[in-house]
Amino acid sequence: MYQTTNTRIIVPEFDVRQPTSLEAVLRELEHNAKGTRLLAGGTDLLVQIKLERTQPARLIDITRVPELMGMAVKDGMLIVGAATSIRTLANGVGVRERYTALAESCDAFSTVPVMIMGTIGGNLCNASPAADTAPALFAFDGAVELASCEGSRRTVPLDEFFVGPGRTVMREDEVMVAVRLPKTAAGTGSAFVKIGRVAADISKVSAAVKLVRKDDRVSECRIAVGAVAATPMRAYTAEQYLAGRRIDAKTLADAARAVEEDVKPITDVRSTKEYRTHVAGVAVKDALGAAWQRARGGERQ
Ligand SMILES: Cc1cc2nc3c(=O)[nH]c(=O)nc-3n(C[C@H](O)[C@H](O)[C@H](O)COP(=O)(O)OP(=O)(O)OC[C@H]3O[C@@H](n4cnc5c(N)ncnc54)[C@H](O)[C@@H]3O)c2cc1C
To answer: pLDDT tens per residue, the chain (301 residues)?
Structure first.
């Protein structure tokens, strides 16, 4: 019996379809539902196929579908096509200024080739607890738009999307079409912090913060952490604690402690649960400090 590793270059045969419209993607999915998988950048799926964790008979390449690509602002809301690459998203007009934590989560993503191939939809649908864009999208109250073969559409808030490692609320007949981010308010500051073993690795712990600073107090706050529970998660206790307070050494320490109490990490090849618990608090503290500074005077708006 051999051990499967990521160095194997032989993969099972599969059929590839390359539709050029969302309608055609949904048609393909409907006709071939069993044994069919959607393929975006392939940076997760092809690895899983090589490791023989999945053996799809057919792949539907969604990277030639205009409806799934690119970014637009509609009524102040940023809409990002699900097949938009991490690199394109990071460099999108206004993204770094208005959604700083999201741009930073893209910057922290592995290496340039992975950023160019990997997509935002793939990062979310793969549903890793360590998906780097997820905490930042939580922080901005992101939602995903899903289209189904039978013609229905639904929008799911991101904090209801993940169910467990590798599992989401998406059905097999659905395609993620876009990620939607509400307009940010004046006085918003945000930051993303990633702790990895080496620069180009998956997160051991990640944290994203978005806050609105008004009259030198936190008027609104979102805190999310990654790789410290079965899914990326909001740190609600710390969020509630900070509402209406000033950011200083004491409130930062209290918020960090609240985060440490809320997370439920595991020990695995990358880290221990004790390390992850402690560093989740530290990462949130750092992200809060940076977001607070950036929110001063709303200079990044
Ligand atoms: C070397 C390496 C380094 C990595 N580093 C990082 C890192 O630093 N941070 C990080 O978060 N991730 C990292 N990853 C993981 C991966 O690159 C990301 O999760 C990436 O965003 C996946 O996107 P993709 O387009 O390649 O997804 P794919 O592999 O094409 O798809 C992933 C899953 O999502 C499904 N899917 C894709 N798009 C859709 C859609 N529109 N609708 C429905 N289902 C869809 C696919 O069917 C598949 O199940 C790394 C991977 C590698 C190989």
So the answer is: 445 555 666 667 889 999 999 999 999 998 876 789 999 999 999 999 988 899 999 999 999 999 999 999 999 999 999 999 999 999 999 999 999 999 999 999 989 999 999 999 999 999 999 999 999 999 999 999 999 999 999 999 999 999 999 999 999 999 999 999 999 999 999 999 999 988 778 899 999 999 999 999 999 999 999 999 999 999 999 999 999 999 999 999 999 999 999 999 999 988 999 999 999 999 999 999 999 999 985 544 4
- Give me ligand 1 centre to Cα 112, in Å: 14
* CB 114 near ligand 1, within 6 Å: yes
The protein residue with its alpha carbon nearest to ligand 1, atom 51, reads 43
Enter the CATH code of domain 188-298.
3.30.390.50
CA distance 190 to 247: 14
User: Measured in Å, how far apart are the chain's first and last C-alpha atoms?
Assistant: 58
Domain ranges in the chain are: 15-59, 68-181, 188-298
Pocket lining: 211 vs ligand 1, CB cutoff 6 Å: no
Q: Kindly report the number of other CB atoms within 10 A of residue 114's CB atom.
A: 15
Please name which of 77, 42, 83 lies closest in space to residue 59, comparing C-alpha atoms.
42
Is 68-181 a CATH 3.30.465.10 domain? Answer: yes
Q: How far is the CA of 41 from the centre of ligand 1 (A)?
A: 7
CA of 70 to the centre of ligand 1 (A): 17
